Amino acid sequence: MVNPDLRRQRRAQGELETQVLAALHTAEAPVTAAWVQEHVDAELAYTTVMTVLVRLLEKRAVTRRREGRSFVWSAAADEAGLAALKMHKVLDGERDRRAVLASFVTSLPEGDEQLLRDLLDQACDESAD
């Protein structure tokens, strides 16, 4: 029996998702959940890997397609894309979206605030084309 003191510390929220996405990004083609399990942590339960993949699928961070009797998985988003999906999820869960965005923007450091303005201007220019 494993000594409880020697058990691995609990991962930070989202850390396992990040590890799974990183593994998928190293794959040269769509891969099985068993492949992901081997490349993330062979001691990780297969069901845990499947749970993470399904959660990432719900967040549109991965895609899957049936191949034979199982699925193969691919990354649909990089780490920046996953962070953006998380931000969307937070915003979608709030009643006053405007207040959340206003609080976020006003708390940004000056350089990030200018970067956000530049990106918004660029997005407006691209949508006008």
Automatic annotation (TrEMBL):
Keywords: DNA-binding, Transcription, Transcription regulation. Pfam families: Penicillinase_R (PF03965). Transmembrane segments: none annotated. Belongs to the BlaI transcriptional regulatory family. This is CopY family transcriptional regulator. The lineage of its organism: Bacteria, Bacillati, Actinomycetota, Actinomycetes, Kitasatosporales.
